[in-house]
Amino acid sequence: MSKLPIALQLYSVRQEIMNDPEGTLSAVADMGYEGVELAGFGPYDAAGMQTALLKRGLTPVSAHIPLGEMITDPQGVLGAYAAMGCGYVAIPHLGEADRPGGANFAHTLAAIQTVGAAAAALGMQLLYHNHDFEMQLLEGETLLDRLYRITDPALLAAQPDVCWLQVGGEDPAAFVTRYAGRVPLVHLKNYAGGKTAHMYDLIGLAPGQDAPEQKPFEMRPLGDGLVNIAAVVAAAEQAGTRWLVVEQDTPTPGKTALQCAKESIDYLHTLA
Hints:
The protein is an alpha/beta fold and 272 residues long. Helix content is 38%, strand content 16%.
């Protein structure tokens, strides 16, 4: 069994949360998850979500919040999550113009500094959650490595998404090891297949030019896919990671989101 506590990104069961929030949160707790990562509050407000989580012994570990939303009112937006007990907030992704080398990157850096400082003042840590498009090279360096190189680790830590790292050509376990001390949360996700033209539909992004059609891309539970999850977990345990966060954007065909969530945590419980 993994030595690290395990949370579920509730985006994985977003439809279930909307249809049956109480039953879904109870099911998540019953599976053995100790915490959750938020992507909004579903049908609740912040206080209602906090109550529902506390009732089931689930820790609100972190939240995904767009940078544009956080920068509009850093203290106000982050304060609601801090009041719940969230220790981390993550930027889910950056648009092409907002990434290193993009026309708006200077604005992105300023926003990260402002939001990161506001998070720190509230006792929280700002993170960045990658996809595979940050593995593109700029002057021989990946966009993700450049982002972390030129930002203060105290203001921006990493939330590596191991599925997208591997899709982008990185070794996920090696990446976690390389950023030891800066990876408090690791996003565990597995997949099968290769890049397709519709991989990013869920986040509203068009595919890149390097996305040829291959075997259909599918999200998979952690024990069923191309990522060596056991190696990633071992690396995380040595890298100072505080929580493992399970996410599966879409259920594997023929399975429900809750079935996939259970298969993932059951697999993690088999690891030595």
